[in-house]
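Recall the central idea of this unit: under ordinary conditions, the amino acid sequence of a chain determines the structure it adopts. In this exercise we apply that idea directly, starting from the sequence alone.
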Amino acid sequence: MTEGVYPSIQLKDLLGRSLNDVESKYAPKEIFYEGDMEIPLPCPRVSIIGSRGASERGLAEAKEITNVLIENEVVIVSGLAKGIDTVGHKTAIKNGGRTIAVIGTPLNKVYPKENLELQNELKKNHLVISQYPVGYPTTPKDFVFRNRTMALISDATVIVEAGDSSGSLHQGWETLRIGRPLFICKAVVENNQLEWPKQMIEYGAMKLEESTDILENLPSNIKMPELFQ
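Accordingly, the structure predicted from this sequence is:
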């Protein structure tokens, strides 16, 4: 690949299916990508997201959820940020799973800088995608739109841990807006100091009691012809 030149694709082709009206409304115009994961993307896919400054409990929970998902051949999606995102990606890699990073900068940029090695590993052996072309001037709002795209490519989203001002909340609301399952970890829902979990529960989010509960809300990764062999 020529330095700074990345292939691009439409969301419908990345997912391997037609988009519904809501998905079409919010889909980015094009998606740039680098990696060796097959396209259309393997299914199912779950976003593991949360605070950049996560607690030890939150990081441990992210690891446990990720492990359960990859044991069941679920692709882990996250945003390559510090904290929960990084744990999701690294746990998937360490345990032989597959993972996708959806970043808020062009593919030739790295944010945060300390994830340079991780981003390079994902580009080589997994997948990194961005809706921003090389040369695009990144602003804070681009990470909000990144969260929308991450919700669009995921079959479900799990918020492991997040404060009232966390950027993960943007993806939570986008997930509900497009009608996908949204899980919020039990300890977060039961934290009386937080208002957002109760609000999202009212709009259809689910309290995550056990990691395996996620699996019941995912599309099957079994192809129809296999059922008749």
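The radius of gyration is 17 Å.
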